[in-house]
Amino acid sequence: MTDLLKGFIEKRAIFEKKKAEIEKSIEHAKQKGIKVNRHELKILPEFFEAVILGLKAFEIRKNDRDYKIGDIVFLNEFDGEKMTGRWTERVITYVTDYEQKEGYIAFSIVSPY
What is the rounded distance in angstroms from the CA atom of residue 73 to the CA atom of residue 39? Predict the structure, then answer.
C-alpha cells in the first residue's frame, strides 16, 4: 500500500470518527430538548485557510437558515467550481445583525475541539 493511500485511509478514518462524535453530540442535545441545527456551507479557499489557521473566527452570511448560538456549521472548501474535499466544523457562539446589510448577519465561530 502506498503512503498516499495510507494517508488517505487515515484521514478518512479521522473524518468518520469526528462525524460520529458530532452526530452523538447532536443526538444528546435533542434528547435534552435543545434544538441544534447543522448547517453545511461552502467557503472559498482563502477564507477557509484563515478559519483553519485561527485568523478568522466569524462568518457574514445571508440569514436564510435561522442561525442560532450553539448551532454547528460545517464549512466545506469550495474553489468556485467544485468542493475540494477539505472541511472543518465550528460552533456558533454569537449572532448579530448590527450594521449588516438587510437580511444578513455576522456570527462568531469556535472549534468544538
Answer: 5
Nearest Cα neighbor of 40 from 84, 82, 71, 81 is 71
Per the prediction, the chain carries an average pLDDT of 87
- d(C-alpha 9, C-alpha 3), whole Å: 10
Provide the CB-side half-sphere exposure for 46 (13 A, CA).
1
DSSP structural state of residue 55: S
In this structure, of 34-38, 71-75, 84-88, the range with the lowest mean pLDDT score is: 34-38
Count CB-CB contacts under 10 A for residue 82.
8
The grid coordinates listed for 41 are 456551507
Phi, psi of 21 (to 5 degrees): -65, -45
